[in-house]
Amino acid sequence: MHVWRRAGTIGIALYCLVPFYWMVVSSFRRTADIHDTTPLPSPWSLESYEAVFAADMGFGRSLLNSLVVAGVTTAVTLLVGTLAAYALARLSFRGKNVVLALVIAVSMFPGALLIVPLLKLFTAIGWINTYQAMIVPSMSFALPLTIWNLTTFFRQLPYELEQAAMIDGCTPFAAFRRVMLPLAAPGVFTTAILAFIATWNEFIIAVTMVNDQERQTATVRIAQFTGAAKFDTPFGTQMAAGVLVTLPLVLLVLFFQRRIVAGLTAGALK
Amino acid sequence: MLSPTLLVLALVVFYPLVAAMRESFYESGQRLDADGFVVEGEWFAGLANYAGVAQQRFINAALNTTLFTVVTVSLEVVLGMAMALVMRRAFRGRAFLRASILVPWAVPTAVAGLMWKWIFQADGVANALLGTQILWTADGPWAKLAVIVADTWKTAPFVGLLVLAGLQIIPAEVYEAARVDGATPWQTFRRVTLPLVKPALLVAVLFRLMDALRIFDLPYVLVGPRKQSVETLSGLIWDEATRVHYGPASAYGTALFVYIAVIAFVFVKLLGADLLSDVRERRLSGRREGNARVA
Amino acid sequence: MKALHVTAAALALGAGLAACGSSPSPQAPTQERGPITFLGGKFEAESVQKIVDAWNAAHPQEKASVVLLPESADEQRRKLIQNAQTKSDAGDVMLIDAVWTSEFAANRWVEELKLDTTGFLPTTIETAKYRDKLYAMPVFTGTGLLYYRTDLVKQPPKTWAEMKKICDEVLPKQKGMSCYGGQFDKYEGLTVNFSEAVASAGGELLDASGQPQLTSEAAKQAARFLADAFKSGMIPKEAITYKEEEGRVAFQEGKLLFYRNWAYGYEAAQKTDGSSKVAGKFDVAPIPGLNGPGAGTLGGNNLAVSAFSKHKQTARDFVAFMTSAEQIKAFARTSSMPVPRAAIYDDPEMIKKYPYLPALKEGILAAKPRPKAVRYGDVTAAIQESAYAIITGAKPVDQGLSELQTALGPLLK
């Protein structure tokens, strides 16, 4: 059994990492030998990374923009979504299922069609080239996920805990904040990470709503990287940028991973 | 507590949704005047834009979409479950494993598409490793497989993480009880883990289903637009929209919306009593069930 | 429906009359002047920036700033159309693909231009016109060239039959080498290669009156040539996945004896850093045809003035400035992108820098534009659909062509 488990663990790690490894290797090749299939670059080259950080590309700035957009979207979504999820999980009111159904229905429409009406709307209210023009639409996919995930999460937590807290004199909100939220931490963190990554990688809204290079996010900048010639897909540069865009997320997970798995086992019930 | 949510969704989804649905009944930008200029304005077209729904291209795209959805979501559930179980255990290097499982999800889709295109191209590393000469990115059955491999790689971690969060909420006592009762690992998984993680798993599957039914960028980047073997409904809609056929694009979008809604409805009806039922009722029955099973 | 039209027409008429009644004040030229934004592509950005700097030095009150569009042609097109739909003045001057000119003009997204077109290669000016009126100015151009291996081929072939004959002689001694490649993936490049084949067989996709001519003998010969070449392996099987770059790499790896590509591939294949195995061993020639030299398809980009610009006069002057003889030459000095002015191709300094220029000029003058159509997106999709089916053998030549003939009819009205 242990052998099996070990083999499974290694297998999963390999499955996830090998394609990414290829991406990293490709990013360290020279543009000229980008088509090689050797397991390691020969010679190693920082050409692609230099191209990414060339002054006129504004890649650093775009990473910052991505951080602002994804960070604010995640924070606001969590704030709004946690409250909504708690209400849906714990309070009984008429039309609750309708709300849940509506929330999920918004995840069903093909994104390509939402863009043009939104663009017209944002042009009319002067939101083009602003952060909120990216943040607000991004909430349309972050919110449903947050609400549904956290609603199931809150539902599973024992009711008795809140009751006990309220008997101890807590208001419902204090019960939520002091008792439920810490218990739900792994769910909230997991959801936050999923929402953050989804927003971080968003492309179509960002490329539509923003023309100004100063406000463009990293995924949009990557699409503007160019090769040595007109038809040349700048594969190395894009892979290097892909690695750079992925790394902060991996670090984020390494940093927060304890929070993702805390919860009941280590939490209040012990 | 709900109003901010509803406000946001009304602004960024319901408004464009209504606008797009209205568009599906109108024709615009298709008429030329005598001087060769496009006549401005729009005309009510009735159901004319929906005519394509019955045609071969739409049906083919619907079949592809369904196939991709069924296959990738099934694979992702199995893999995601395995990932969650592995991530949950305490062992050396666990942090590293958790981070590495998240890597595919963290790679931007467009970059992931390019990466797989690179791997799968005619003289790429996939053929080099397999010793084959397969044209993965040309129209044909191999292209389907390439899309499935790439999509599963990209999104299984999503399922894994959501299930992991669900696993965290299972009290250690339950496992303790199962161990004391002498349950085998498989029995523990079937009788304890699976039922208790079901709500989280169902949410993950629901979201993956709806996402997979709208799959677009991977086949588009990896194989290319208008390739029969991998064209999905969203790809078709995108193609129509880029050629400024907003009427048909909106009509197909509405049809896809209805299709997804039906699937979601059926899914929730069949499997999702857990998702919508009242809290108390579910908890009570859940406890009885749990007790009976552990006992 | 009919009643609705009549009402709409009446309303439109009414609106027009009302507008006449309110005596519009003619806009003073000064109001059409001011700072402008140029929406350009990334690749040629550095060389373009130099021209923009020169403009800004001379016009401090009407400075131009450059905003880069996404790299892929599809994304560029989407962005420009979105700007037009929101009537945005985000770009006063825009770089458009030559084949979009008709669509943009017919939709009144771009302004008619009255600029001097002397000194340009005539075929390039044709791509900038819609119904005989000028709506853009060519700024980049190009056509297909035949890359061939000088170490294996003495004289580049003039006809397809010659090419096949050379291959039959050379290939048995070369391991892993195929005869010929082009761009055959299902995208714009396939339209280019297919129309090139038809033109090289002496036919045309559309006749002078704009009617499709796909059932002509020439079209059949061309389609048969491509289908047979795929079937016999003269064109390698993997060429069905080739865009420009995949094929260029194959040629540089020594996997192709002949390759059809744009001029840009010359510089890359000439590199001596080990990336190209054919450096110093290849040259370019005009592409071959059925009975003699072939005719390429014209590529390229035009500059257009947005209909939603607030400073149209400045924008027009900027287009004239950028396409002036002086600036085009300055551009050609720093970029290998082919330009539309004839003088460059006869300039000894330029020929020394880009040895392929004479072959390219010959190619461009013989080149045919792709079909001019308001619904070009639909036209090219239809061509790709049929051409792909024909070359992969999914459909017989005659059937594929007659289906295309039928499909194009309503799209060209």
UniProtKB/TrEMBL annotation, chain A:
One Pfam short name: BPD_transp_1
GO BP of this protein: transmembrane transport
Chain coiled-coil ranges: none
Location in the cell: Cell membrane
SUPFAM superfamilies linked: MetI-like
Membrane topology: Multi-pass membrane protein
Membrane-spanning segments: 7-24, 63-86, 98-119, 131-150, 179-200, 235-256
Entry keyword Cell membrane: yes
Domain of life from the UniProt record: Bacteria
A single Gene Ontology CC term: plasma membrane
Main location: membrane
Ranges for domain ABC transmembrane type-1: 63-256
Keyword line: Cell membrane, Membrane, Transmembrane, Transmembrane helix, Transport
Record family assignment: Belongs to the binding-protein-dependent transport system permease family.
PANTHER family from the UniProt entry: INNER MEMBRANE ABC TRANSPORTER PERMEASE PROTEIN YCJP, MALTOSE TRANSPORT SYSTEM PERMEASE-RELATED
Protein name: Sugar ABC transporter permease
Automatic annotation (TrEMBL), chain B:
PANTHER family noted in UniProt: GLUCOSE IMPORT SYSTEM PERMEASE PROTEIN GLCT, TREHALOSE TRANSPORT SYSTEM PERMEASE PROTEIN SUGA
TM stretches of this protein: 67-87, 99-119, 155-175, 196-216, 256-277
Pfam families per UniProt: BPD_transp_1
CDD domains: TM_PBP2
Membrane topology category: Multi-pass membrane protein
Originating organism: [Actinomadura] parvosata subsp. kistnae
A GO cellular component annotation in the UniProt record: plasma membrane
Keyword terms, alphabetized: Membrane, Transmembrane, Transmembrane helix, Transport
Record-annotated ABC transmembrane type-1 domain positions: 62-267
GO process terms (BP): transmembrane transport
Subcellular location: Cell membrane; Membrane
Major localization listed first in the record, in broad terms: membrane
Record's keyword annotation contains Transferase: no
Protein name (Swiss-Prot/TrEMBL): Sugar ABC transporter permease
Automatic annotation (TrEMBL), chain C:
CDD domains reported in the protein's UniProt record: PBP2_TMBP
Keyword Nucleotide-binding: no
Molecular function via GO: maltose binding
InterPro entries: SBP
Biological process terms in GO annotation: maltodextrin transmembrane transport; maltose transport
Signal peptide (UniProt feature, chain positions): 1-18
GO cellular component terms, A-Z: ATP-binding cassette (ABC) transporter complex, substrate-binding subunit-containing
Keywords: Signal, Transport
Protein family membership: Belongs to the bacterial solute-binding protein 1 family.
PANTHER family membership: MALTOSE-BINDING PERIPLASMIC PROTEIN (PTHR30061), MALTOSE_MALTODEXTRIN-BINDING PERIPLASMIC PROTEIN (PTHR30061:SF50)
Listed name of the protein: ABC transporter substrate-binding protein
